[in-house]
Amino acid sequence: MAYLELDRVGKQFGAQTVVDDFTLAVRKGEFISFLGPSGCGKTTTLQMIAGFLDLSRGAIRLEERDLARVHPAKRGLGIVFQSYALFPHMTAAENVAFGLEMRRLPRGERAERVRAALTMVGLSGYEERYPRRMSGGQQQRVALARALVIRPSVLLLDEPLSNLDAKLREGMQIELRQIQRTLGTTTILVTHDQNEAMSLSDRIVVMNQGRIEQVGTPQETYERPASAFVSQFLGKTNDFAAAIDRSASPARLVAGSWSAPAPAGATGVVTISIRPERIGFGDAGLAAKIVTRIFQGNHWLFQCESECGSAIVIRQNDGQPQPVEGDAVHLVWRADDMVLRTGGAT
Amino acid sequence: MSAVTDTAALSPSATSDRRGVRAPWALAAPALMLFVGVLVIPLAMTVMLSFHDWGQYKGIEPVFILKNWREIAADPYYLEMFGRTLRIALLTTLITAVLGAPEAYILNRMRGPWKSFFLLVILGPLLISVVARTLGWALLFGGNNGLVNKLLMSSGLIGAPLRFMFTETGMVVALAHVMMPFMVLSVWAALQRLDPQIENAALSLGAGPLTIIRRIVVPQIMPGVLSGAIIVFSLSASAFATPAIIGGRRLKVAATLAYDEFLNTLNWPLGAAVAILLLVALALIVVGSNALIERRYAEVFR
């Protein structure tokens, strides 16, 4: 049973289609990420759910109720903005209390819930601080507390972590996930950061140019990308042009000097897509030469020039000797680890 | 670049040290001379002048007496004059704030060609001489058959024609028009600092449009309104052309009074005393309210 349902939603700005045919069913308590490059329509979709933008086509339903008929102020959604949009003339506690005030909660209960919300985000003791006197991370927490204190039916996060430095961002990601798990609030996160989307969400909606490319769990989208765009946007990937050789029996899939039994049904020119960490060095396989070798602590990053174009290989730093720059190597991988797409490499 | 800095740091010679002290003064000298020459000296002379004696036949006598100041303090005529100046300036400030702040807010929410068009409409008056603008108002007011009265009467707002010429009402209306751009610009600047998402944030928390304006927008543009008010107040309290044309000889304010003392009565010392009093009063009000505003908003707006 879908809790929040987007049904063929579209948004048009003049002649430009920003979001097209967006259909998604969100279950209660689910953490969904809209992932895509800037301008892919993810924020526009979020703003349509929030009610800041009208839909050009389609419908959004929350618990079977058409949201088009609900005023944005009455939707009861919690939103954390990229700029936080805190009220600078109010203290942290006043900021958090604002939504409760609008709901005409009695003063006592209001104070109680504000205190609980600020404690939850680790800001007890900061009640009387003004936003300008807080760090970016603290402002972010106030914004989160302000959105959660109204017990929203859906929590919408618009690139909430993009203004924080890397270390703080990682900490906030873990905290955000814990808070969301504890409260069980249905959450939609808009982000362009694939790591953020993967570490936080139950399902990822990969978007490109206003359209959904793939919906799936982080693992699915990473390991079984539905399109070249998804495989390239989610992490690094190697695309090799390959061909089906029907002269052999049974037919073989051939890329340079690498070959494997062809999967059933594949014909003509195909593209093999393999993640860099799934490629190993072997005695026979795709012939390549190591161009650069970069040490990154827990792993090695190799850039190779292979028969089928440049390739990236990541090897765990497991103490085994690794090839050095200039070495001639053979790239091998398991058939299970590659994704096959018909058509040439993009 | 770094080599130059290094050399300078390693050999701090006595000459360069002395030059370091002198250089700011030398650089500031032209501006300082202008400031002293055209502001401080004339002002000091005016202050001196206000203590000089004056007679119908003897003219100005360079002595030190308190006659002019005593006259201003004792004669209720001057109290009335300064009271009127203050009243007009306050009313003008109030009207520009009440009309100008919403005007700036609406203007800020407009888009495309309309925004620039209306901005031009609002700022346009600044391009026209204040005398021409005020004479325009005089034409519109023009006695009982003026355009403004005809409009107000035909719309049923008033039964009998209002008197605008030579009244404080007329002065306030004309001054408010003249001063409006300053208020709009000041509020406009404050609106630019507003987070564009802040109204959406309040909306999502359940606030209606009026609550958003009252609780979120107004408190944040208040510093802009107040600084605009300071500009408008000090400009209208010292305004000359508008009160002179609309108020005429009959209805004087501090500025026109000082002018008349200087150029009609030729009692320069008394005129100087009036001018100095206006300056001091304005300076006190502006500095005082500025300090108040800064203390009130120090915590929120840095």
Walk me through what this model shows:
The complex is a heterodimer of chains A (346) and B (302). Chain A has 346 residues and is α+β, with helices and mostly antiparallel strands. Chain A folds into 2 domains: 4-232, Rossmann fold, CATH 3.40.50; 236-342, no CATH class. Chain A is 24% helix and 35% strand. Chain A has 8 helices and 20 strands. In chain A, α2 (92-102) crosses α3 (107-120), α2 packs parallel to α4 (136-148) and α3 crosses α4. With 302 residues, chain B is mainly α. Chain B is 75% helix and 2% strand. Chain B has 13 helices and 2 strands, in the order ααββααααααααααα. In chain B, strands 1-2 form a two-stranded antiparallel ribbon. In chain B, α8 (168-192) crosses α10 (209-237), α8 (168-192) packs antiparallel against α11 and α10 runs antiparallel to α13 (268-297). Chain A binds chain B through residues 50-52, 72-79, 81-83, 85-89, 98-99, 102-103, 130, 132-133, 146-147, 150, and chain B through 195, 197-198, 200-208, 211, 215-216, 219-220, 299-302.
Gross CATH architecture of chain B = Orthogonal Bundle
- Report the span from N to C terminus of chain A: 38 Å
Numbering strands along the chain, what is their spatial order in the largest sheet of chain A? 6-7-8-3-9-10
Taking Cα atoms only, what radius of gyration of chain B do you get, to the nearest Å? 26 Å
Shape of chain B: globular
Number of domains of chain A: 2
SSE arrangement of chain B, N to C = HHEEHHHHHHHHHHH
Count the E strands of chain A. Answer: 20
